Amino acid sequence: MAEDNLVLAVAVLAVIASLAAAGFSYYSLAGQGPKIVGFATSTGTANLTVDLVANINFTDNVIMWGNGSVDTGMLYAILDTAQGTVGNGSWTPETSGLTLENIGNVNVTLDLKVGKSAADFIGGTDPAYEWNVSNSDVDSCVADAGFTLDVYSGTTTSDTNICDYLLYNDASDAVRIDIKLKVPYNSLKGYLVDTITATGTAV
Predict the structure, then answer these.
(1) I need a surface site. Which of 6, 160, 176, 183 has the fewest CB within 10 A?
(2) Contact in structure between 150 and 132 (CB atoms under 8 Å)
(3) Distance (Å, rounded) from C-alpha 190 to C-alpha 21?
(4) Which tens digit of pLDDT belongs to each residue from 130-172?
(5) How far is Cα 105 from Cα 112, in angstroms, rounded to an integer?
(6) What is the pLDDT of residues 47-65, one digit of tens each?
(7) Considering the domain boundaries, does residue 152 fall inside one?
(8) In what order do the strands lie in the sheet with 141-143?
(9) Domain total for the chain?
(10) pTM here?
């Protein structure tokens, strides 16, 4: 009987030991189970095309001296928008020249030409028709090597390169074109008009 109890006790202890070992193994294996790690990326694209726009505009496009004549006894009158004066004549002084602005989104070269020579526009003895281009906004025009800003020079009926670059930045995109006329006493009579053409080419 005692032997039976001993065998039973040993058997119970064996079962308890087996269960403890199984639990420990399960706990250990539970922490070492398979792990699944996921990582995925995807990209989208935004794109557009910005058109190059070369565009210039005369924001002040008229010089008008009105009616007048050379003073009696004078050989000629001088009309000058840069000075805002009329010398030896009765025309109304014009204090502003033409203003030309680059309203595009790219720098341009600037060419100017007039429609008539001094003889065809004004006539008479030794007439003069000159222009003076200056920066209306600071550093707007990078002048061509053959042209000088801020001084009067004779106009031409063929394209004359004024600016290698007329910038498009809002703070630096405009030039002023002043006009000076020498009107002789024996000039053409009536309504005299000419057209100044500006051409901008993207650079």
Answers:
(1) 6
(2) yes
(3) 123
(4) 999 999 999 999 999 999 999 999 999 999 999 999 999 999 9
(5) 20
(6) 988 888 999 999 999 999 9
(7) yes
(8) 141-143, 160-166, 108-114, 196-202
(9) 1
(10) 0.79
